[in-house]
Amino acid sequence: MLPFRPAPSWLADAVLYQIYPQSFADANGDGIGDFAGIAAHLDHLAWLGVDTVWINPCFASPMRDAGYDVSDYLTVAPRYGTDDDLADLVERARRHGIRVLLDLVAGHTAVEHPWFRAAADDPSDHRYVWADADPLPSGFVASPGTRPGGYLPNYFDFQPALNFGYARPDPAEPWRQPVDAEGPRANRRALRAIMDHWLTRGISGFRVDMASSLVKDDPGKKETARLWTELRGWLDEAHPDAVLLSEWGDPAVSVPAGFHGDFFLQFGGATDGGPLRSLWNTGTGTDRDEWDPVPCYFGAAGKGSFAGFAAAYAEATEAIGEPGHIALPTSNHDFSRLACAPRDAAQLPAAYAFQLTWPTLPAIHYGDEIGMRYVPGLPDVEGSVLTPRYNRAGSRTPMQWDDGPGAGFSTAPPERFYLPLDPDPARPSVAAQRRDPGSLLHTVRELIRLRRTTPDLGSGSPVRVHNDGYPLVYSRGEHHLVVVNPSDRTATAPLPDPAHARATRLIGEGVTVGPDGISAGPFGYAVLRH
């Protein structure tokens, strides 16, 4: 018997779409995107086939880390609008058949949060991990208030870690409180209250930031998993149709812990995000020195390997069983876009053919559906630059709606834009690609339509890989075959079954299937029914 209810049925068919609100659409002309801007473009998402959007943090914040430093969980950031504007967006999205998920920063706040201001002057406050010690333990930051000692940050120094306890307390280090101490219990209650506040206002769930970071010194994340299992039990009873998706990057651990789904990410798990990076990472966008410089599978040179991703997917699905899902993103606000040099627009249809027919939940980062590129060399905006080789701003540039001034993103002067537009004169736009039936946008839309109308291509149908080199060949369910060649040279593979020689192509180009086998031209792809 499962420790919690199965995921809501609507999630199994979801097509997720990530919106970075400050860069999506600006309705009031101040150069920063807002709720009204999102609402004005819901028709685009509905036309595309998206039914679930995840909005990056939109709560009140000093914005040193683009909203991942929350100063008030129960109020939206004024630059996006009002609480009523968010409510209006949620209702208008519902009328378009679209659910809205918010980003919940569960593990830390901003130093400006009233909780932290109180804790900085009150030695009896245990809301945060606080060491009243001199000298401070390694990694702690000196108190900004009258309280002696200092606090543990979760990432940047201005993001103090909320106290969910330590898996291994130590009486000699009293700041290492057990997970059942009053401070951790209060924070678990606060999480439930925050979630309940927004869920009762029509939100359909949350993507949880740094979900694995809550309990400290937690080998195997066992105590953190127990925390989320407890919260999931509450959610199942209080809001059974809501979902929790985690930024954990290790579905084999996070989904059994209570999340309805987790993403393969550029970090997480035993290989620090190896499965996702083995698919997409070109090494030229957001990249870290410690990452293995291995060629990605979706690279024109055809030197990557699909085996690592396939093994990680198999391991995760076996661990998960029935309760939840794995999500596969095209990119995200912290990781290079699909269109990141040297990968260009010609290579993207094959990538989408895979992403939208593999039995993971597809998650599209805003603008990836038209092939917006990762823009290098941008300034540090709200903490976007982490290292000289890891500038997240390149994946956060304004949405390119049309070819007019401001690309349809904003009527503000360009110097007031949250980030500069892609300066490439050939940059793609939604309007231009809507007019072109052969565009990437129409390809993505048709692949989404096929996924929705073909049970074999959904998340609940089995997958069987027949060729894991180039081209990639796999079956979905009983009657569908997918062929994807991300390389710039023709690749061949044997027929998995003689019946496939009579298959009908549903979508694709550059692929032939006959009695002698499969031939896939450069960047060719096909979805076939047999």
TrEMBL record:
It holds the Pfam family Alpha-amylase. InterPro entries: GH (IPR017853), GH13_cat_dom (IPR006047), O16G_dom_2 (IPR045857). Residues 18-396 form the Glycosyl hydrolase family 13 catalytic domain. Gene3D superfamilies: Glycosidases, Oligo-1,6-glucosidase, Domain 2. PANTHER family: ALPHA-AMYLASE FAMILY MEMBER, NEUTRAL AND BASIC AMINO ACID TRANSPORT PROTEIN RBAT. Belongs to the glycosyl hydrolase 13 family. This is Oligo-1,6-glucosidase.
